[in-house]
Amino acid sequence: MAGFSEWWQQAGASLNTETRRGFNSLVAIGAWMLWKLRNDVVFIGALPKIDHALLLSREEANLWMLAGTKGLSWLVAAQPDG
Questions:
Q1: Least confident range of 31-40, 49-58, 67-76
Q2: What gap in Å lies between CA 63 and CA 28, rounded to an integer?
Q3: Which end of the chain is more exposed for a tag (fewer CB within 10 A), N or C?
């Protein structure tokens, strides 16, 4: 069974450079948001909600794009609004 880093490397291996940069950013944002929300559940007793995780991830991605993260704007723009 492959671990997270192996999955990440394999999933991005066939992408072109610009797309891979955006993909790497999205994976990092997703992992970070899940970690933060997991901590809220464990330490504060918050209820886990996937819609909240997705909203926070989108907001974080917007901040990363404002900061100039390469490749992320194209990937986020290609996604249908939810």
A1: 67-76
A2: 13
A3: N
State which amino acid sits at residue 37.
Answer: L
DSSP string of 5-74, one letter each residue: HHHHHHHHTTS-HHHHHHHHHHHHHHHHHHHHHHHIIIII-PPP-HHHHHHHHHHHHHHHHHTT-TTHHH
Structure tokens at 56: 């926070």
Inform me whether the pLDDT recorded for 45 exceeds 90. Answer: yes
**What is the rounded CA–CA span in Å between residue 60 and residue 1?**
30
Name the amino acid, one letter, at 80.
Answer: P
Q: Would you say how long the chain is, in residues?
A: 82
Here the tokens at position 70 are 């390469």
What tokens appear for 81 in the block? 């609004």
